[in-house]
């Protein structure tokens, strides 16, 4: 693929990070508030013997935690990715980079470093790349492999962000042929493929289609956390694109809640990452009890990353402590036991799941 010199893509990436840091881009309603883990008053093991390790796409993570795809594509993000990657390396968890479209299409060494710094800072961590489904239709297999080689990736995420694209003034709204492109890449790429949403969740039928297409994992990225529709509404307002601003605001809380999406996706795939409004180790524990393999977070790591890797490590250690406590008081000595922990499903999530099962 010939390299371009346009800066539109990298400027958009810089806008995204700035808006996330400065504006209200949070939604509520993950559904985790409706998941009640059953307390075990007599765990019958020592807290120190809890095993957080988990098999993840043929590798082993020290804990079932993923730093979700967030940034890259602008020189201003290099420092953030370095801190995130160094923390992933130190704690033994997984990390994804933001969309690599800019690195593949733009001729800019400083921009490219915003991605390559990740593997430099984390030579042993589980790192996955990231390409949009809309772009996947346009790239041949060789170009997709370049994304893998760029960061020596252990896997590649294909992100499904069509609501975001529909709100962007410059968005790519052609979704025709994306499933076929995902299937082709899943069958031929040198590393596992993760299909991931970007904040609006994945329903069961879509999860079934993705599973049949051969993806190795599904990241639900459900409703209840950062709203990319809302982010794009802020960007549209800045350029007086009033129609896109209105649409982005209207669809700010659109999607399948994370807890419900997790329940639906685990019916179709055995490796599901629960993300979208995950904010605590207790949220991760609930997601795993629903059947997820791991929990993913993005925005909660962003502010710590501006302070350096030690701050990110501290945030991860908080999550680990919270997750360990949840495992202890549910009698779950390892992640497999937590996946079988008892829970009650209440409120709106119970009603949503019940109606979807009918």
TrEMBL record:
Its main location: cytoplasm. It is an enzyme of class 5 (isomerase). FMN binds at residues 69-71, 99, 130, 196, 226, 277-279, 298-299. It is found in: Cytoplasm. GO terms for molecular function: FMN binding; isopentenyl-diphosphate delta-isomerase activity; magnesium ion binding; NADPH binding; oxidoreductase activity. Substrate binds at residues 12-13, 99-101, 164. It catalyses: isopentenyl diphosphate = dimethylallyl diphosphate. One of its GO terms (biological process) is isoprenoid biosynthetic process. InterPro entries: Aldolase_TIM, FMN-dep_DH, IPdP_isomerase. Belongs to the IPP isomerase type 2 family. This is Isopentenyl-diphosphate delta-isomerase.
């Amino acid at each position: 693929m010939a390299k371009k010199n346009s800066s539109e893509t990298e400027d958009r990436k810089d806008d995204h990070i700035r808006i996330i840091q400065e504006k209200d881009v949070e939604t509520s309603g993950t559904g985790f508030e409706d998941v009640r883990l059953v307390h075990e008053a007599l765990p019958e093991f020592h807290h120190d013997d809890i095993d957080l390790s988990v098999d993840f796409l043929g590798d082993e993570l020290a804990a079932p935690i993923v730093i979700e795809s967030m940034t890259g594509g602008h020189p201003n993000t290099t420092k953030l990715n370095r801190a995130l990657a160094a923390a992933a390396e130190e704690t033994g968890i997984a990390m994804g980079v933001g969309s690599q479209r800019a690195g593949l299409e733009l001729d800019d060494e400083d921009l490219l470093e915003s991605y390559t710094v990740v593997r430099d800072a984390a030579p042993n961590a589980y790192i996955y790349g990231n390409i949009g489904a809309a772009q996947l239709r346009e790239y041949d297999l060789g170009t997709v492999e370049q994304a893998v080689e760029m960061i020596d990736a252990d896997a590649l995420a294909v992100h499904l962000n069509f609501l975001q694209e529909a709100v962007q003034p410059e968005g790519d709204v052609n979704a025709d042929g994306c499933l076929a492109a995902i299937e082709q890449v899943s069958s031929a790429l040198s590393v596992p493929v993760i299909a991931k949403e970007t904040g609006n969740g994945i329903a069961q039928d879509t999860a079934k289609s993705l599973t049949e297409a051969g993806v190795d994992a599904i990241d639900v990225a459900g409703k209840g956390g950062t709203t990319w529709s809302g982010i794009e509404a802020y960007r549209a307002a800045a350029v007086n694109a009033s129609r896109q601003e209105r649409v982005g605001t209207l669809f700010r809380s659109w999607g399948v809640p994370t807890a419900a999406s997790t329940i639906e996706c685990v019916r179709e795939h055995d490796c599901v990452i629960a993300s979208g409004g995950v904010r605590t180790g207790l949220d991760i524990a609930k997601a795993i009890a629903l059947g997820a393999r791991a929990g993913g977070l993005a925005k909660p790591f962003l502010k710590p990353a501006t302070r350096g890797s030690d701050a990110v490590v501290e945030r991860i250690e908080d999550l680990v402590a919270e997750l360990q406590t949840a495992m202890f008081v549910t009698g779950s000595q390892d992640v497999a036991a937590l996946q079988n922990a008892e829970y009650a499903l209440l409120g709106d999530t119970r009603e949503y799941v019940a109606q979807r099962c009918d």
